[in-house]
Structures are given as C-alpha cells and as structure tokens.
Design a protein that fits this description.
The structure holds two protein chains of two kinds.
Chain A lengths: L6 E6 L2 H6 L5 H11 L5 E9 L2 E7 L2 H6 L12 H4 L4 E5 L1 H12 L8 E6 L7 H12 L6 E7 L2 E6 L4 E5 H6 L6 H4 L11 E4 L12 E5 L2 H12 L3 E5 L2 H25 L8 H9 L7 H5 L10 H4 L11 H9 L9 H5 L6 H15 L21
Parallel strand pairs in A: 2-4, 4-5, 5-9
Antiparallel strand pairs in A: 1-10, 1-11, 2-3, 6-7, 7-8, 9-10
Helix pairs in contact in A: 2-9
Chain B lengths: L3 E6 L8 E6 L5 E5 L12 H4 L1 H4 L6 E2 L2 E2 L2 H12 L4 E4 L6 H14 L3 E2 L13 H5 L4 H4 L4 E4 L11 H9 L3 E5 L9 E3 L6 H4 L6 E6 L6 H14 L2 E5 L5 H8 L7 H10 L4 E5 L3 H4 L3 H8 L4 E6 L4 H5 L2 E4 L9 E3 L5 E3 L6 H12 L7 H16 L24 E3 L3 H4 L8 E4 L1 H7 L7 E5 L2 E9 L7 E3 L10 E2 L2 E4 L1
Parallel strand pairs in B: 6-7, 6-13, 8-9, 8-11, 9-10, 11-12, 13-14, 14-15, 18-22, 19-21
Antiparallel strand pairs in B: 1-2, 2-3, 4-5, 4-15, 16-17, 18-23, 19-22, 20-21, 20-24
Helix pairs in contact in B: 3-15, 4-10, 4-15, 4-16
Chain lengths: 384, 485
C-alpha cells in the first residue's frame, strides 16, 4: 500500500536492470511497468547517443524502456512535445517537469494522461564542455568515463578502470567548466512538482549506489508505484529517518549554493546603462528563432506576438522579437537554459530573461511549473 | 521506437553543424539539437532551423514521366553510352556517393567537376590549406582576425567563434560590404592596402571563402596576404562536403560552373550529369542558367532533393534524403562526420549505372573504406596545414562589375525562401533617393526591374546588398539603376 507523501527506498527486481540503471534501476522499472500494465500507451525514454548525450524518443516497447539508461549529462529537453495527444510516462528533471506543467496550463497536454517520474538534479552539463573539462581538469580521456555523481559540493567521475576523481564544483566553474550557467542559480533540485521525486540522495548503508530514494507526490505517483509493485518490477521499503534527514541536508546544501551563486551571476546593472546593456547583449542575434523553438514553456506556435511584430527588414536598435519575449515570458520562464544552449551567437538569453522573470515571479510569490492549478500572475482573461 | 531519429550534418555550408532529424509516424520532419557536436554544440543558424523544409523529396523521372529508380538508371545508361559527358558534383552529398559518382566518371572516361574553377588555377601545394584551413577551435585563440566574409549572413556559426576570440583578447577587422557589429574596425580599402593596413601577423587569422563564382585572382590575393603576413587562413565553403569532394577529385582538372555553362552555350558540352548540384540554383542568374540548360542534348540529374533542375532534366535518378544516407562528410576543418542513416539507394543506383557503362559494381562498405584510406588518414584530426606555396602571380583581377552585390548565404545557394526580400543600403542612398517610410527601391538592370523593400546599414555609398537572389541580377555583382517607388 503506497500513500501520497510516502518516502521510500526501492530498486528494480530484475538484477540486470538494477545493475545497469542509475541507482538501482527503480525509475526504469517503474516506466517499464507503466507501459507493460497499460497505465500508459507510450513512454519517453532517453536514447543513448554517447556517454555525454541522450535524446528523447517515444516508445511502446517495454524492452526498449528496459534497455534505456540515458546519459550522464542529459541537458533539459522539451519533453511536453512528446506528450501531446498521448497517454505517456516520462522521466524528468525538475525543470523538465516545470515545463510540462506549464504546457498543461496552456492546454497543450493533458496532465491526467501524463505521468512524470521526477529525477533529482544537482545540475546538468553541456556535452562538449564536459569532454573538454575531463581533459583539462581531470586528466581523464572522455572515452573512459562510465559514471558521474555530485557529492558534498564535488563533481565525481568514475572511469572504466574503477577509479574515481573528484573536483570541487566551485573550482570547475571558476575555470569556466562544470554545470550550465542556468543550473548554477537553480534552487529546485528535488522534483517535488513531479508525480514521483526520485534520486540517490538519502540512499545509505548497504543500499548506497544500488537503490533510489522515492517520494510520492500525488495520486498519480501512487498509481505509478503500486503498478510497478503489482507487476513485480520493483521492491520498496520505507526510508529511515536518517535517510530522510540526509536527503534534506543534501538538498539544502544544493539550494543554498544556487542562492549564493545567483548574486554572483546577476551583478547589478547601473540604471543609466540598462538599455545599452540589453541592446549590446542582443546585437549579435542572427534571427535564427532557435530560442523560441526550443523554449519548453512557449505554446504560441508560429503565429505569435514575438514574430508578428518582427521582420529582418526592421531597423530597430533592438529587435521587437526579443523585447516581446522578454516581457511575454516574465511569468512563465523557468530558467531551464535551453535558449542559451541553442543560441548560435552565444547570447546568454536565459540570464537576460531571468533578470525580468526572477524579480517579477518573486514579487508575486509565484514559481512557474510547480502546480497546474497555479494561475500565472500575468495570465490574460479567458473568454468563454 | 515510434518514428526515427537521424544523426546528420546541416547541408547549409561546410561548417559541419551536427543535428538530429526526427521523422514521426506520418513522415513529418523536425530538427533537433545535437549538443554533442563539436563544430556547433547543437546550435544552428536560421537555415538549419528551417531544414525540415529543405528536404523536398525528389522523384525519379524519364522524359517527364515518373519512373522507378531502376528504369531511370537504365534510361541514363542508354543515353550515356559513348557520349561525351560532363559531370558536376559540388559536394552536396556524402563522400561515399561522391566517390561512386567518380567511379561512374571513370567508366565514362571523364572526371567529376566540383564546380570550383579556382582550384585548377592554384598550385597543387596550395590545395591542402585552401581545402582544410585553421580549425574552428583555433579561431578562438587568434590574436587578430581579418574577416572577408559577413559571418552574420553568410556563415552564422562563425559568429560565436569570433566573439569567443574577442573575449580572449582578439581584435577583429572586417573588410567587407557593410559594418559588422562584432568588428572592432570596419574597413573599405583598396586590396593593395591589405598588407599594410590590416595589422596581421603570425598570430592572426584570415577568414575568407571560396565558392563557384569566386574570382580566382581574389583567392590568390588572400593566399598572398597569408603568405606575406604569416597569418593563418580559413576558406569557408558553401557546400556541406565541399572539402571531401575536393580531396577526392583533386588533380583531375576542375571546371567551374560558369565554365560549364559557357561550354553548354558554345555547344561544346552536350551531355551534363549532375549529382545533387543544381546549376539553376548555383548560378547567380537563375533564368539565364535555365535557358542555357535547354541547349543540352541530355541532362541527367541524380538528386536527393527536388530542385528546379529536376523539372528540366531528361532523366532524374532520385536518391534518399541526405539525412537518411549511409555515409560521411568532411567539414571545413577536416573533421570526418558520419551520418547515422543506413540507406544506400543512391550508391546502389550509381553502382548499376557504373556497371551498365562497363565499370565495376560498387558497395557502400567498399566506398567507405576507400574514403577512409584516401582522405581521412591525412585529416582525421584537425591540424592546420601551413601554406607551402610561393607568393602567387595574381594576374588581372576581375573588375567589380556592379553596385548590386550578392551576399551569398545558404538560402541563396539553394534558392530557398526566407524573410529576406529586401536590400541593404546606407542612409545617404536613402536620402539621395528620397525614400520615405514604407517606400521601396526600384532596381533596374538590362534584364528588367524589381521593387524591393530596404534596410538601412552602415556601408559604403552607392552599394546595394542582397541576401536573396534577384531576377535583375546577372552575376554576383550587377550594374543597376535605382529610384524610389
């Protein structure tokens, strides 16, 4: 019997899945069971491209779910587009889950048909930067990496020969490596907005490294776990008080780190230089439109405000496209960083957007993507 | 898996930008970002973002009627036997298909022209540097960068490299047609002043480009500038596998596309076979190119895309879309990039064609091994090849023929629609013509008049830039008169 609010530790019953999957393979087994028992029709899994990249694919094949192991550093992706019109289960980092919930608010997906298995996230890393970091900072051949973890403020890499090397995240980020910039000031590390919040924080003792801590967040989370238990795919047991306390402590450390770095990442811009600052930041835009295309909370489609008033022929000092987006996304930007990731001119779009979004959202005590019933503060009138 | 995900390379230029093409259950395509791609980190320009529209599937045709690939190959074999054939493959497809095309040329006793006429005018020892220039990563550590291209319009994924170099302390000088925001200096100077005015030395990088309509004298001038200043050089190219086909075809005596068109007009070329190379798209004046192609006895098109030349061809041998092909590409820095696709329709068609013409059967693995042996050993790991030639005799430079200038870019090379139906002029031109808000500029040449919207740029007086092919243009520069409408 599973209840909302339960804090459990569990693992896959299949030894192979338990061994290959991250932290005991519980997430993989839950997703496989959801498909197997008809709770969903499809599962989104991360197709392994290499140790540093995975891409989401949709499958209706249980074996494909069981074979998926994702990738070490999968950066956020727009998962909601794979849920549109489907009854689906998916793994999601906290920001991925935020985006899915924002899309549900905009009627792009039906959350009743979308099961979100959340994964703790201390931050994701860009594949190419990570490879360079491994060579420059760790003296490790990227091809030799088989595992990665964040523990006590250090980023740890495990290699084929069983060795581990840890370097402080601060040191890596000072050197221009480490986590993506948006992850550094993120303060949502445990996906309490998902149906299940899973991760290895709080897994201690004999189970360390071979089980997952799982918090049941809502009725859908109950269904997911009970379904997997009924299918014989997972075993769970209550988490000990010590395990719960350790998980909370790790989370506190990560959240505090994010809050501290926020001040560093967003230095004050003097009033008199503010317009010039934004104009200069956007001046190298090549109008590719990738930032809109990749935005996981944008539900406007091609016919949108930001594109309607923008044309390459314009002679404005700063494009209407960017100005409209800066305002339009103020209450919905989740700072996932995807717009910066894909910008061909390396414009730090997420940071610029966050300069508008963070204060506006804080003033209204609103965080996007946490609960589908939370109405965005700038939500426009619904005509019925 | 429901649908397919292909790992491929953007066909918009020779940068080698990796990306994913997603094909859903209904066959609809979408572009996704390949963040592990070292050339672009998953980032794409506006052409890359619109790639789903680029892959318009070709259909095999014989004499205007749809046919099977087999029948098209048979009909092509019949037409080619004993014919004097000219072959064109600019590098819009894989190394393996390009090599198969070369094998067909061997069977016919001819060569494949890459359309870059400039190569035949350069000493052999210049080829490695023109083909594979300084690495993209090395741009970021240059101390000074001289730009002879407009990266924003022409090769947009260069922008972030140049900006990274600036963050690392580089200064940037642009020698182009308009002021560039990322340049510290924008110069409009006589070519004879480059060596003395641009401040280049051995820690500098020159970024220029080579394309089918490049004046050979200009390329030699760039090489001489690099030789005299000891600066390193990078020649961007407009076709995804331009470097690969150059290396595979080197030494065979190249005809440029303008030369081929001239040959057709003069009647010395009667049969043309193209591999993913559409002269109507590639020539600056599409109408004139189309008129020229009507003079051929035989026009045989092997193509993965539907382009204007397909409509005119006697025979079209349709191959699979580029993203679905088994095969590899070589980017501008010499990296071999592999498609994840496994289809060999194009290679199989060319194998049959080669056999029908007396050549040997071809298979993908054999061709791939041949590619690995012939070009990859030298260029697996990017490494700048120092210029080994002497200062070149430039000869008479082609005179600038007009005030309307083409800013070549991927949309232009594929003649694809974009939000670019305007020209760029400076404020003096606007004032001189009395152009008010919302007015248009009428451009008139020998071939007619076109009315265009305009955008104001900081650029030299009298020049008109366009990033879109215009019906009034007759070359990469054209003399036009202007008036307000």
């Amino acid at each position: 019997m599973v209840n909302v609010g339960d804090m459990l530790v569990g693992y896959a019953t299949d030894e192979d899945v338990r061994k290959r999957g991250a932290s005991g393979g519980l997430v993989t087994a839950v997703l496989a069971a959801a498909l197997e028992k008809g709770l969903v029709e499809n599962v989104v899994v991360m197709k392994h491209i290499n140790e540093f990249e995975a891409v989401p694919i949709i499958t209706d094949d249980v074996d494909e779910v069981l074979a998926s192991t994702g990738s070490l550093h999968s950066v956020p992706v727009n998962l909601a587009k794979y849920a549109m019109g489907r009854k689906v289960a998916m793994p999601a980092k906290p920001c991925d889950a935020q985006a899915v919930i924002e899309q549900a608010k905009r009627d792009m997906i039906d959350l009743d048909n979308t099961y979100i298995v959340g994964l703790n996230c201390g931050g994701s890393m860009h594949p190419v930067t990570t490879k360079k970091m491994l060579v420059a900072m760790y003296d490790i051949d990227p091809e030799d990496v088989v595992g990665e973890d964040i523990e006590k403020g250090k980023l740890i890499f495990k290699t084929k020969n069983g060795e581990e090397k840890a370097i402080a995240i601060d040191e890596l980020e000072e050197a221009g490596y480490g986590r993506r910039e948006s992850c550094r000031f993120c303060t949502l590390k445990i996906p309490v907005n998902a149906d299940l919040a899973c991760g290895n924080w709080g897994v201690i003792g004999d189970l360390a490294g071979s089980a997952t801590f799982c918090q049941v967040m809502n009725d859908k989370g109950v269904k997911l776990l009970e379904n997997a238990i009924d299918a014989g795919r997972i075993k769970v047991e209550p988490a000990s008080d010590k395990a719960i306390a350790i998980r909370a402590k790790v989370n506190d450390v990560m959240v505090n780190l994010g809050s501290t770095l926020e001040e560093k990442i967003f230095p004050e811009i003097p009033d008199e230089g503010r317009i010039q600052f934004y104009m200069e930041q956007m001046a190298d835009c090549i109008d590719c439109g990738a930032c809109k295309e990749v935005c996981p909370v944008c539900a406007c489609g091609e016919d949108s405000k930001c594109t309607m008033f923008h044309s390459l022929v314009d002679n404005y000092k700063m494009s209407m496209y960017h100005m409209i987006r800066l305002l339009h996304l103020t209450d919905s930007c989740i700072a996932c960083g995807q717009c910066s990731d894909v910008c061909p001119s390396d414009i730090p779009i997420t940071l610029l957007q966050s300069r508008f979004a963070i204060p506006a959202q804080r003033r209204r005590e609103y965080t996007p993507g946490m609960n589908v019933d939370d109405v965005p503060p700038f939500f426009e009138v619904i005509l019925k | 898996m429901i649908g397919n995900v292909y790992q491929t390379v953007c066909p918009g230029c020779n940068m080698g930008c990796g990306l994913y093409i997603r094909e859903d259950e209904e066959g609809a395509l979408a572009v996704d970002f390949m963040k592990s791609s070292p050339a672009n980190l998953g980032k794409l320009c506006r052409f890359g973002m619109k790639l789903a529209h680029h892959y318009s599937k070709a259909t095999s045709m014989v004499d205007g009627k749809e046919s099977s690939v087999e029948d098209a190959v048979k009909a092509a074999s019949d037409k080619l036997k004993g014919a004097d054939v000219t072959m064109l493959g600019v590098g819009n497809t894989t190394n393996e298909e390009s090599l198969a095309f070369s094998k067909v040329a061997d069977a016919l006793g001819t060569v494949v022209n890459t359309g870059m006429g400039v190569y035949s005018e350069l000493p052999t020892e210049c080829h490695p540097t023109v083909g594979v220039g300084i690495t993209l990563d090395d741009i970021e550590s240059a101390k000074r960068i001289a730009l002879f291209v407009d990266p924003y319009v022409q090769y947009p994924l260069l922008v972030r490299r140049i900006l990274a170099a600036k963050k690392n302390g580089a200064s940037v000088v642009s020698v182009g047609w308009r002021d560039l925001h990322l340049a510290d200096e924008n110069k409009y100077i006589d070519p004879d002043m480059y060596e003395s005015e641009l401040g280049l030395d051995s820690e500098s990088v020159i970024i220029a480009d080579v394309h089918p309509n490049t004046d050979p004298g200009w390329v030699k001038r760039m090489l001489n500038l690099a030789l005299k200043t000891q600066a390193k050089i990078l020649f961007m190219k407009p076709f995804v596998n331009a470097t690969g086909v150059d290396l595979l075809c080197k030494g065979t005596g190249q005809k440029g596309i303008p030369e081929i068109m001239e040959g057709i007009n003069e009647g010395s070329i009667k049969t043309l076979v193209t591999l993913d190379s559409d002269p109507i798209e590639l020539m600056p004046d599409s109408d004139a190119a189309a008129a020229t192609l009507t003079k051929l006895d035989n026009l045989i098109v092997i193509s993965s895309r539907y382009g204007p030349v397909n409509k005119m061809a006697d025979i079209v041998i349709a191959t699979e879309p580029l993203y679905a092909k088994a095969g590899s590409f070589m980017n501008v820095e010499g990296q071999l990039l592999n498609n994840s696709g496994e289809s060999t329709t194009g290679i199989d068609a060319m194998s049959t064609l080669a056999q029908n013409l007396g050549g040997e059967a071809l298979d993908y693995q054999g061709l791939h091994n041949n590619v690995l042996e012939s070009i990859v050993q030298k260029f697996t790991k990017p490494n700048y090849k120092e210029l080994a030639c002497e200062v070149l005799d430039i000869g008479p430079m082609e005179e600038k023929k007009g005030n309307l200038i083409y800013l070549y870019n991927p949309f232009m090379w594929f003649d694809e629609p974009d939000d670019n139906d305007f020209v760029m002029v400076n404020m003096n031109t606007v004032n001189k013509l009395g152009l008010g808000k919302g007015a248009m500029i009428a451009l008139t040449s020998d071939t007619g008049t076109v009315n265009m919207r305009y955008r104001v740029e900081d650029m030299p007086d009298g020049l008109i830039l366009t990033a879109k092919k215009l019906p009034v243009a007759t070359g990469w520069t054209t003399i036009v008169s202007t008036e307000a409408v």
